[in-house]
Amino acid sequence: MAAAAPALIGRMAESTLACGAAGVDFWTTAAGRPLDGLRWLELVADRRPPRWATPNRVVFEAPLARLRDFGGESGEREGSRARVSPTLLLPPQAGHDSCIVDFSPEQSQVRALRSIGLTRLWSLDWVGATPATSDSTVDDYLAVIDRASEEIGSPLHLIGDCQGGWLAAIWAALHPERVRSLTIAGAPIDFHAGDAVIGDWVALLPPDFYRAAVALGGGVLDGRFILNGFIGIKPENELAKQLGLAAHLADPEHVGRYRAFEDWYKHTQDIAGTFYLWIVEHLFRRNSLIEGGLEIGGERVDLARIRCPLNLLAGAEDHITPPAQVFAMEAAASSRRVRRCISSGGHLGLFMGREALREHWPALLSDVARPRRPRRSR
Asked: Is the CB of residue 123 less than 8 Å from the CB of residue 54?
């Protein structure tokens, strides 16, 4: 990692020079006044807990996750033959709060799903790890999905974002009869496909590095460790964001957007150490999900058991999960109905970007959102 530091610094310097060459003066506000350094430092340092934008009800709260109801039985009309199947959303789980799927009224995956007819909608809300849950395994996280499925009913429409996507794929392969459709967005299925920076780092660093990181956190992986890793992948983005704030201190809308995003991005959650080390070894290193050597609870995880309609969404500029990692699911599963969409944006844009929410999610799930009708008895 130390060997990569000069390259990261160089990229940040190039970003600064490029902005300067474009005539951007970061030391004056957008209104032309001198930079208020104290105000800038206050906004950079003042972080508040993020919130969900859409009213919801917590159905249950387990040590590893909560289940939030964003419509429940409102999707079912009495006296109507049409019935909307339940939908379960698995948010990303990478050291951040799950509310990224309901970031704001204008940038909400939850609201986008409801607007196209998936009104019986629930979402898991991952809980940060503690010393009491540091030994949680992948079996424990799959058990949370089991409980949610029992609560809302099945078969269900299962949607997984990023880490929630490969977890959804594993659960669907173990319980194919309980999944009506599977949708994954920005989720690595083939961890060795494409040109992913994270894969390069995992291959470069020895296993002892990750074990030491967990030991340093007292059995959990400190969420700040992952945050700094994301910043290190694209340091120029972080630099441009902070300097952009300095240039727009007099713009309330810009400041509001900055504060809302930073409140989510910099509010980190710890990850169970046992679960994290399992991910590194079995998924990132061995690529067992796609190679076919993954076993959970004594049962082989075979993606070919997935035969339900499959929907795949990737970002053309996604440097976290390149499209090839997502689209590998099509060849691994046995689904006959497969839809693929690719957004022009990056990773987070898949869950909160206006293009993805307005164009790609509705197109991807148009068939899923159609109410199913009960069969007539002969």
From this structure: no
